[in-house]
């Protein structure tokens, strides 16, 4: 049994995940400290989403342990996680299309309210005072995200960038201690990505963040610590500077020795269209 130092909010030890004959994660370890931003990167097929699902309790590892504040993970339903102080966004938007923005955010605010998401939708068993409080908290969060004007709109009628902000607001409204973000920058413009970078740094004043992301410039800008996966193994772990200087990382992305990689010093960006020869259409670090 592993002992967990109290300063670790989330810890993975020796995590192995097998899907039939395929080892998606092989003996992976990772720690997240309060208030830190941890990036999870690696070529396509490296095991990032699988690790993300294990960290968020959605997937049980074949071997190894996950601990949340020194205890087993709280359960895999979103409201179990929310109650324990963990929130996540999904690779897609995962918003309820038939519910106005404010309702979508209220569902996320349910951590401290008495009823569940079902009672929010049905109105069943919820006190008027609870609902009022949820609404106020959701509205305050929409204001904080600068999207209060869209409170009564259906998500599908809004630009994609605004919908991403709604998803983020829904995750943050419960004031989690850990926010898990799965590719939050996908589909965003450069300017929207700058806003997101500022937001993520802002979040880390109050919570820890684990970020799975393809956009290396964003990862390098916002992360305190980066873990690099390749073929399900951790091949590097360190500060953005250490990761950028690590030949094993360059090699994993390019499939060539580091000294054959680009040397123009340009910011690292993953181009998923470039393969590295591992058969999964891996991206390149450049
Ligand atoms: N549910 C699953 N069943 C079988 N294989 C899977 C499943 N999920 C992922 N894999 C495989 O595990 C490996 C890691 O996948 P994934 O975690 O999605 O990588 P990444 O997110 O880094 O692109 C890939 O080879 C993928 O095909
Ligand atoms: Mg993935």
TrEMBL record:
PROSITE patterns: ABC_TRANSPORTER_2. SMART domains: AAA (SM00382). Residues 253-286 are annotated as: Disordered. The keyword Magnesium does not apply. Residues 10-256 form the ABC transporter domain. Residues 276-286 have a biased composition (Gly residues). Keywords: ATP-binding, Nucleotide-binding, Transport. GO terms for molecular function: ATP binding. InterPro entries: AAA+_ATPase (IPR003593), ABC_AA/LPS_Transport (IPR051120), ABC_transporter-like_ATP-bd (IPR003439), BCA_ABC_TP_C (IPR032823), P-loop_NTPase (IPR027417). It comes from the Bacteria. The keyword ATP-binding applies. This is ABC transporter ATP-binding protein.
């Amino acid at each position: 049994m592993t002992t967990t130092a109290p300063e670790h909010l989330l810890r993975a030890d020796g995590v192995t995940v097998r899907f039939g004959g395929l080892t998606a994660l092989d003996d992976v370890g990772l720690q997240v400290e309060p208030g830190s931003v941890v990036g999870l990167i690696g070529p396509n097929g490296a095991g990032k989403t699988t690790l993300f699902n294990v960290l968020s309790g959605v997937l049980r590892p074949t071997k190894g342990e996950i601990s949340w504040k020194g205890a087993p993970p709280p359960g895999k339903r979103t409201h179990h996680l929310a109650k324990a102080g963990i929130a996540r966004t999904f690779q897609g938007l995962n918003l309820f299309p038939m519910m106005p923005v404010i309702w979508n955010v209220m569902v996320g605010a349910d951590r401290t309210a008495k009823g569940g998401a079902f009672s929010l939708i049905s109105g069943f068993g919820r006190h008027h005072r609870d609902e009022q409080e949820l609404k106020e908290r959701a509205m305050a969060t929409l204001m904080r995200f600068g999207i209060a004007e869209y409170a009564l709109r259906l998500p599908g009628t809004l630009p994609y960038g605004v919908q991403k902000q709604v998803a983020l607001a829904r995750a943050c409204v419960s004031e989690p201690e850990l926010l898990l973000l799965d590719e939050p920058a996908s589909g965003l413009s450069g300017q929207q990505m700058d806003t997101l970078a500022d937001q993520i740094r802002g979040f880390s004043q109050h919570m820890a963040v684990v970020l799975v992301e393809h956009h290396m410039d964003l990862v390098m800008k916002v992360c305190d610590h980066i873990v690099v996966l390749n073929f399900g193994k951790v091949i590097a772990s360190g500060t953005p500077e250490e990761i950028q200087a690590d030949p094993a990382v360059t090699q994993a992305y390019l499939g060539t020795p580091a000294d054959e990689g680009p040397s123009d010093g340009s910011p690292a960006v993953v181009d998923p269209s470039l393969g590295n020869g591992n058969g999964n259409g891996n991206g390149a670090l450049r």
